[in-house]
Amino acid sequence: MPTNPTLLLTGDEFRGFAKSKVMIVLWVLMPGIALVGFLLLRHRARLELGPGHSISAKQYMGFLESGIAGAIASVLVAVEIVSDRSRNVYQLFVIRPIRPESLLWAKFIAISVLVIIAATISMSIGFIFDATEGRPIDADELLQSGKAILATAQGVGLACAGGVLFGVLAKDSILVAVVLVLQIGQNFIFIPQIPAFFGVMQNQFWLWTAITFAFLFAVMWIAGIAFRRSQF
After folding, report:
1. pTM for the full model?
2. Shortest CA distance to 157 belongs to which of 182, 188, 181?
């Protein structure tokens, strides 16, 4: 039975990245550092928020992950694409019946999923820590936690799509790819939210989610066109 080439390539990429030292750091070291940071800074946060207010470990982990998870994903995928091009890896696929977009989607899916797993681990640790401190856990809390994870996934996905696009456009320069990702790609997450800045569609979480994924696919489609026209 024939196997979808995108799924096959995604499996190879996923296994490769999962065994890398970068993912070990993301899955183990980053959650630990985040929790230590929360323990050290929560007293200061309580002072800044005022009496009777405090930030939970889950909130802190979610805020931290939303800020760095997308950056990690976008830089990682951009560097991988440029590195593979410089090592002439893509020339090996020219004679095989594989669509160029499959190579990009494989890296996008593998890296996005792995970084989202790392972010989920961190937020889950924060959730468990809050539970040990006696913070109430109810249906609304679980719903908000799910939305926080989904929002992080959206940010990671958009940032990673930007990393794919600029990794393709940068061709052989890793430095150019990283600069484009950090200066432009990191702002992609704000584009679907532009209407909210003008008072339109505020508090429409699921509508923003749909718009975000539509924009993500548009970015990947543009990256695919640019990749097909590249000279390997």
Report:
1. 0.82
2. 188
